[in-house]
Amino acid sequence: MRICFIGGTRYSLPLDETSAKKFRLLSQLGELYVIGFAQNPKPHRFTEHANFYLMPKLPLPVLRYFLMLTSGTLLALWFILVQKVRILVAQSPYEGFAGAAAKKLARLIGLETALIVESHGNFEESIFLQRRVLVPDIYRALMRWTSKFALKHADLLRAVSNSTHEQLQRWSPGKPIIQFPAWTDMDVFLNTQPEQAGDDVLFAGVLTPLKGVHILIDAFAKVGRKLPTAQLWIAGRDENKEYAAELREKAAALGLADRIHFTGEVSQQELARYMARCRVFVLPSFSEALPRVVFEAMAAAKPVIASNVGGIPELVQDEETGFLVPPGDIESLTKRLHWVLTHPEGAETIGKQARESARKLFSSKAYVDSYRKLFEEARKTLKNAAACN
C-alpha cells in the first residue's frame, strides 16, 4: 500500500525525534510519501521512514498556500502516476484541495485514488485568529471554496475531536468520519520525573492571537503582584512576528521583563524538561481542536488550566485533572492561577490524576491501529470504484 500525506507541516532534516517516531510507526502500514514544507526557503527531498518532498518555506502564508495549491497538486499527481500511490491523506481541507485536484486529474486517465481529508482544528475561523488577513472577505470566500471542493471529492474524513467531527458533519453530511486524536509522543512526557517545582507557569505553542498569550500575561501580572517569586515561561515560535513583538512590549510595560521569559521554539525533549520544572501549564486559546500539548502536560503530571473551547473539555476534567476557564476571561484565569500556585499539594494531586487520565487517552498502538482502519476503509472505496468501472 502506497500512501501520500499532504500538509503544511514544516519538517527538519533530519527529522526531529517526535516526527521520526511517528513515521517509523506509520511505515508499518505501507510505503509513505510526504508533501510538506522545509524549514527554510530551499526545497528538500530525503528519505527517513518516509519519502519527504518539501517545498520551500516562502515568507508569506498566502504564498505558501498558493504553492500548496499548485506545486502540491502536481506533486500529488506525480506520486499517483509514477509512484503508484493510491491513497492521499490531506491534513486539512485546505491541503485537501491539492489532493482533490490530483484525484480528479488522475481519474481522467483511468486511475482511481482514495482521498482522506482530515481536520485538526476549526478550519473556518482559526486562520483569522492567527494573523491579520488583508481583504478578509475575499480570503474567506477562497478558503470556503477550496474546502468545499476538497470535502466534496473526499472519500473519507478524519476528525481529531468531537468539535471537529461536528464541523465536518455540517460540511459533508452523510460522509463517513473516523475519529482519533493527533500524534503525540507520550513516552517523552510519561517518563519525565517532576522536579521540585517553584512558582513557574508554562505556556507552549506558536505565538499568534489565537493562542491568547496576551490574556495569560495580564493574568500573570495580577498574580505576580502577590507572588513575587512566580515566573512565566513562554515557549514557542514567533509565527506572528507583530504579535510576538507586542507580547514582549506588554511584558516590559508591566515591569515584568525579568519574570516573563520567551524561549523561542523548543524540541519535545526540551519542552519535557520545562514541564518537569513548572507548577502548572496554561493554554488560554480562543480556538482549539484537540491540542497535543495538553496531552503532553497531563502526561508530565502537571495540572492544566485551559480555555473551555473545542476539544479541550474532552481532555481536561474541571477540578479533577485541571481547570477550564472561559476564553478571554482574565479574572477566571487569574483566580485559577493563584489557587494552583498557593496550593502546591492540591496542584500535585491534580497533576497525578492528569497523568493517569493521559495514559488512558492516547497510545502509539491505538494511533497506528486507527490509521490502519482508516486505510482499510480507503481500500474498500477503491475496490468499489474498480467494480463500478
How would you describe the overall organization of this protein?
Helix content is 49%, strand content 18%. It is α/β, with parallel strands linked by helices and 389 residues long. The strands form two sheets. The chain has an eight-stranded mixed β-sheet with strand order 3-4-2-1-5-6-7-8, sandwiched between helices. The longest helix is centred in the last third of the chain and has 25 residues, at 364-388. The mean pLDDT is 93.
User: For the largest beta sheet, what order do the strands appear in spatially?
Assistant: 3-4-2-1-5-6-7-8
Task: Return the average pLDDT rounded to an integer.
Answer: 93
- Count of beta strands: 14
Percentage of helical residues? 40-55%
The general outline is: globular
Task: Provide the β-strand percentage band.
Answer: 15-25%
- SSE sequence, one letter per element: EHEEEHEHEHHEHEHEHEHEHEHEHEHHH
Radius of gyration: 21 Å
Broad structural category: alpha/beta
Amino- and carboxy-terminal Cα gap: 21 Å
Largest sheet: 8 strands, mixed
Which spans have pLDDT < 50 for at least 5 consecutive residues?
none
Number of helices: 15
Q: Which features characterize this protein?
A:
389 residues; alpha/beta; 6-stranded parallel sheet; 15 helices; 14 strands; globular
Compact overview of the structure:
The chain has 389 residues and is α/β, with parallel strands linked by helices. Helices cover 49% and strands 18% of the residues. It contains 15 helices and 14 strands.
